[in-house]
Amino acid sequence: MASRFLILCFSPLFFFFFLAVAGAQTNAFHGEEKVFDVRNYGARGHLERNNTLAFTEAWSKACQWTGGRSKVYIPAGEFYLDQIAFYGPCKSHITFTIKGTLFAPRTLYADKKAEWISFRYVDNLTVNGGGTLDGRGSYSWPLNDCNKNVNCRAMAMNIGFAFVRSSRVNGLKSLNSKMGHFNLFAVEDFDITGVVITAPEDSPNTDGIKIGRSKNMHISNVTIGTGDDCIAILDGTTNLDISNARCGPGHGISVGSIGRYKDEKNIEGITVRNSVFKGTMNGIRIKTWAKSVSQTSVSKFLFENIQMIDAGNPIVIDQRYCPHNQCDSSGDYHSHVQIKDVKYNNIWGTSKTRAALMMQCSKTFPCQGVELSDIDLVYKGNGPATATCENVGGSVHGKIVPGDCRM
Ligand SMILES: *[C@@H]1O[C@H](CO)[C@@H](O)[C@H](O)[C@H]1NC(C)=O
Ligand SMILES: *[C@@H]1O[C@H](CO)[C@@H](O)[C@H](O)[C@H]1NC(C)=O
Ligand SMILES: *[C@@H]1O[C@H](CO)[C@@H](O)[C@H](O)[C@H]1NC(C)=O
């Protein structure tokens, strides 16, 4: 056997066989992915240099590449970028690899586009590389007056995806956005994983991930500490699964607010599981406007295996939402948003506020099918935690602490 193999090795036949295999591999490799390095289009790592044109050119070459998959490559280093939008459709799968750090302009309002960097109308996009988007928000936070001015001028968010399908972000850091960090609108079959989002606890409106009108999304292994919502789930979002999220500081994961505007769409099929909230102002919160013009529904939710560490208001349904006194008196309005089929299972830990479980549903559209099982939330201060349940229909299973909630 061994001698026959040796003979084969020295035979010309084997030699050709070897060449054929090696050749096929090299071809496959080249056909696999064509790399467009932004440096070849004039990008330079220097804080004063405007790299926008170089990035745009690298993208359009990669996007129009017809020889197979393509990749835009941003090497390690620091690159200054003005507002930029990457448009599809592209010819094939496209990867955007960021190794270095991209720096935003000091001030950038959201007048023309909502985000500093955006991807639109692209399919089969992968953004990866583990690099950083630095929004340099500290220059613009002092200009933000949105907490007292309803018509305030919005600043650009760090990165946006709109009308993007079958795509993913895998490994990216987003730092100090001027307003929100990630903005997802009308995306479909979209995964976010290995993302780290950071802004100071007192930075205004620095939401981590905002999602609207999108479907079939997975968010996993994310670490989000900001001055606003960890993840904000807005109208028209369906089939979203969030797992292994670490939120805090910030305002927690929120659904809504919904009900304020006409033409809003339902929110349906949201799961949050295996996650931790640490030092957040709220935990998991559903909020609908007291003064609502649209009659929408929020349904089929599962919140499961969630640990609260020193989180304020760990479980909240607020159908009297009316910030900055925009309702003459919020008690006079009853939200028209129907909340139904919401399950809370195995939620435990410590609450920073006495109100650990607070459900204030609408008088005209009471919550239906709310299920609580195995809840164990302890108040960090003196005395027991409390539970409030107004206009809630549903059932209770297993151990519930605090347990003074009647359905
Ligand atoms: C940066 O370059 C882009 C593209 O050429 C241009 O539109 C933009 O105005 C430039 N920004 C600055 C601050 O010069
Ligand atoms: C995206 O991927 C799907 C599935 O592989 C394919 O059918 C579709 O043609 C691709 N589109 C682009 C633009 O690459
Ligand atoms: C989670 O994300 C972090 C940050 O990108 C990464 O270092 C880590 O390997 C990821 N963990 C898993 C289990 O994927």
UniProtKB/TrEMBL annotation:
The active site is at 251. The keyword Cell wall biogenesis/degradation applies. Keywords: Cell wall, Cell wall biogenesis/degradation, Glycosidase, Hydrolase, Secreted, Signal. SUPFAM superfamilies: Pectin lyase-like. One of its GO terms (biological process) is cell wall organization. The keyword Secreted applies. Residues 1-24 form the signal peptide. GO terms for molecular function: polygalacturonase activity. It is found in: Secreted, Cell wall. Its main location: secreted. SMART domains: PbH1 (SM00710). PANTHER family: PTHR31375. Belongs to the glycosyl hydrolase 28 family. This is Exopolygalacturonase.
